Amino acid sequence: MSKHVASFRTPRGQVEGLGAAHSGTHHFLQQRISAVALVPLAIWFVIAALGLVGANLAEVLVFFAEPVNAILMFAFLFTALYHMSLGLQTIIEDYVHHDGAKLGCLILNRAFMWIVGGSAGFALLRIAL
Question: pLDDT value at position 6?
């Protein structure tokens, strides 16, 4: 490797011989794919939510007891939470500079996604079954 290429690395990267992680493109694609998937799911969600305005609890439970509606709601929630987690991860990585705080925020971000997603998925399963 020439000295010219090595000069673009950080001093730590030069010593350890580490290059870029090359995960930026994958992360970018995940965000774009989840955003595209959210378009029809969000349209379905808005139509479903407007259709349930003024409905009582029994009517809402009947609506989500239908497998198609339960599956679409689960897909919407999972995709929205995943997309939110990816976006928040980017913000944390860009603006939290202390390594310990960054790691803590990233763990909390992912834990929040799993806790909310798991709770919502469990609730949907209980309604649907």
Answer: 47
CATH class of the region 23-128: mainly alpha
Distance separating alpha carbons of residues 28 and 10, to the nearest angstrom: 23
pLDDT at 5 over 60: no
Please report, for the chain, the start and end positions of each structural domain, with discontinuous segments joined by +: 23-128
Tally Cβ neighbours within 10 Å of residue 24: 10
| C-alpha dihedral sign at 67, 69, 72, 78 | negative
Residue 96 backbone phi and psi in degrees, to 5: -100, 115
Rounded distance between C-alpha atoms, residue 13 and residue 20, angstroms: 9
Q: Where are the alpha helices (DSSP H) in the chain?
A: 3-6, 11-16, 24-51, 57-65, 67-95, 99-128
